[in-house]
């Protein structure tokens, strides 16, 4: 019996500024967007509105597959496409699909540019064979993102101090082990 292999696609949703700002607050956001990479990163990451949920993303993905790959694509993906996790607060999700149809799903996610009335960019961040590895990658990526934005600078310094302490302890262990080997030889 052959086991069907799955792939898990970790994605996040970005919200770009509107190209044609209509009021002063939209114009201010558009003008401040290019000032620094951290500012652009903060502007594009935000929580998703209630209108964007797992079902609407799967529906938009199936529609994009149908539009760009036709009946062949819709049949290849079939019922294997499933939303395993989606958080409106972080605008991050995990989709499960078949191994053969994974490139088609990734391409169709990249081709989605709006859901409902929201202009969005869906960015595939990681592809894995297990959902656990996707979760671990997401945790590590979020830590790096927080450090990059400067929110966890103190935690980073504390982590480096702990790491140095363990490395120093490892050196002491190596010396003890070497001494014990010398005693055995006598």
TrEMBL record:
- Give me any GO biological process, just one: nuclear-transcribed mRNA catabolic process, RNase MRP-dependent
A GO MF label: ribonuclease P RNA binding
Q: Which UniProt keywords apply?
A: Nucleus, tRNA processing
Q: Name one GO cellular component term.
A: ribonuclease MRP complex
User: EC annotation?
Assistant: 3.1.26.5
Q: Which InterPro entries match?
A: Pop5/Rpp14/Rnp2-like (IPR002759), RNase_P/MRP_POP5 (IPR016819), Rnp2-like_sf (IPR038085)
Protein origin, superkingdom: Eukaryota
Q: Which reaction does it catalyse?
A: Endonucleolytic cleavage of RNA, removing 5'-extranucleotides from tRNA precursor
Gene3D superfamilies, alphabetized:
Ribonuclease P, Pop5 subunit (3.30.70.3250)
Which subcellular locations apply to this protein? Nucleus
So what does this one do? Answer: Component of ribonuclease P, a protein complex that generates mature tRNA molecules by cleaving their 5'-ends.
Q: Fetch the PANTHER family from UniProt.
A: RIBONUCLEASE P PROTEIN SUBUNIT P14 (PTHR15441), RIBONUCLEASE P_MRP PROTEIN SUBUNIT POP5 (PTHR15441:SF2)
Family the entry assigns: Belongs to the eukaryotic/archaeal RNase P protein component 2 family.
Its name, as the record gives it, is Ribonuclease P/MRP protein subunit POP5
Give the organism's phylogenetic lineage: Eukaryota, Fungi, Dikarya, Ascomycota, Saccharomycotina
